[in-house]
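User: Can you predict the 3D structure for this chain?
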Amino acid sequence: MYDRYSVEFDEGEEYRFTTSSGDLYIAYFTEFVLLDPSGTEIKVLSFGFTRKQAIETKKRYDSKVKHTIVFIINHFFEKQPDDAVLYMCMTNDGKARNRNVTFNNWYHELNSNLEKHSSSSELGRGGFYASILFKVNNPNKRRLISSFYFTIDYWGLNDY
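Assistant: Here is the predicted structure, written as structure tokens:
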């Protein structure tokens, strides 16, 4: 078992933890809608987190943050095994590619019973990256995969 921070949960699917340097992380799941090829909406959850720095300093690598985020995602799927989680790395600060690489690395430490499908597209100087996670035995697996890629295409974010 990896060393991680203590996590506080609340009913609204928000998870909080504070690092040894005093930074507060808030991880959350919010409703997101995918479209299947027939135009039917499929509700999934989008995962994200924010960091509130206690002191303005240069960010240093903290492996406990990674292990805590991995714990939160695994905990989510233990509670809701038939759900899917979407995460998107946005271009607003030019670090989308770095976030995508980080999430891909973290994925390899997640429960091996999770499956991931990804789509990426270069938009301007940054990039837009998105992935969907679900349990390998998810009964809606095919529909989730199809809807994920259809939605990315619908938004016009794939550059084939």
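Strands lie at 8-9, 14-18, 24-35, 41-52, 84-89, 114-123, 126-135. The mean pLDDT is 86.
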